[in-house]
Amino acid sequence: MQLPIRVTVLTGFLGAGKTTMLNALLRDPALSRTAVIVNEFGEAGLDHLLVEGASEGIIELSNGCVCCTVRGELVDRMADLADRMQTGRMPAVERVVIETTGLADPAPVLAALMAHPALSQIYALDGVVTLVDAHAGLKGLEGRLEAERQVAVADRLVLTKTDLSPADPDLLSWIRHLNPRARILDAASGEAGAQSLLNAGLYDPETRTSRLAEWLNGQNCDCDDPHHHHDHHDHSHHHHTGTVRALSLVHKSPVSLSAVQEFIDLLQSMFADKILRMKAMVHTLEHPDRPLVLHGVRRYMHPPVLMQNWPQAVSPHTRLVVIGEGLDPRVVEDLFAAFTGQPRIDAPDRAALTQNPLAIPGM
Fold it and tell me: Which of these, 351, 355, 348, 340, lies nearest to 256 by C-alpha position?
């Protein structure tokens, strides 16, 4: 069994076409060694009967939403899956696809992988794929907290049913406000195949090289383009709709590992479950030639990864992306500035914060 086993979370609001997409993916040879976990919601399970081509590898969770009532069962099933492969009771797989219900919040699913010490050593999150029903449009999604969270945490966003109705500008604007970095693909145009949806994680599984820029979705962020920011200062920007917000913070000078740890600890202690997802590459004083990669969901952090070197497409700098709910961007910015040594008027420094986290204005 080759570790880590990559995990793809397939989500999307009710009726977006998740099972149809899953069936299409499973027909691709690239997913020939894939186990599928299908979450059911209702008195009788039906979705797993619609999944074609991988019946022996399908694991059905009991009634309930994978984000809450069966979260413990999800952990148990994934642990059992690993045990069956290790003991030879089933063939080894390269990937697990978790299809959530339309009412699921994906963040606890991701947190379950990170919070369990054994699972975090066996499985690695490859990406979150969120389907958005273009035919239903914005009226079927706006104001639905589950739908906002599904879009906000996605690495890939797939527009479905565009052959029935093209995505209207309001829907696209809503998506971009929630998630300005994820790649948007059109299923009807054939863009949402395995090659586009899979391997969205930190490493290229074939070349064993890092894909740091793509993992951070840097190709869509002006802060990574030298033509779109000033060299003499740092900056941040954020987008929001409702209470869900995406915040990006950049710092060009190296920072100490202790400052990074203190910042993350304080950020999580202050905002806890408000953090839906966090990604970061850090330029450290201790290892200036090797980026430190951090990945977290809610109050849980994946073990830090120190890469071998900076990829050619990425200049050494610290970049933090936080997707949260009910976050005050000024508080996060002040906190980041304090621990990276950036002078800000009327804001506490690192020493003050480590002694009194409530020293941040507005807290």
Answer: 340
- Helices of type H across the chain: 18-26, 47-50, 71-86, 106-115, 119-122, 145-152, 169-178, 194-197, 212-215, 257-271, 329-340, 350-355
Confidence of residue 199 (pLDDT cuts 50, 70, 90): confident
The verdict on domain 5-197 having CATH code 1.10.10.10 is: no
At 157-179, the pLDDT tens digits run 999 999 999 999 999 999 998 99
Unique residue bearing structure tokens 């304080």? 266
Q: What is the pLDDT of residues 12-32, one digit of tens each?
A: 998 899 989 988 898 888 888
pTM of the model: 0.79
User: What is the DSSP-derived secondary structure letter of residue 220?
Assistant: G
CA–CA separation, 93 vs 4, rounded Å? 10
- 23-58 in b/e form (b: 16+ CB < 10 A) is ebbbeeebbeebbbbbbbbeeeeebbeebebbeebb
pLDDT, position 352: 55
Q: Rounded to whole angstroms, how far apart are CA atoms 4 and 124?
A: 6
Could you tell me how far CA 317 lies from the centroid of its own chain?
A: 21
Domain ranges, ordered by start, for the chain: 5-197, 222-359
Q: Report the CATH fold assignment for 222-359.
A: Hypothetical Protein Yjia; Chain: A;domain 2 (3.30.1220)
- In single-letter form, the type of residue at position 82 comes to A
Using alpha carbons, select from 333, 247, 303, 281 the residue that is nearest to residue 118. 303
Do the beta carbons of residue 316 and residue 291 sit within 8 Å?
Answer: yes
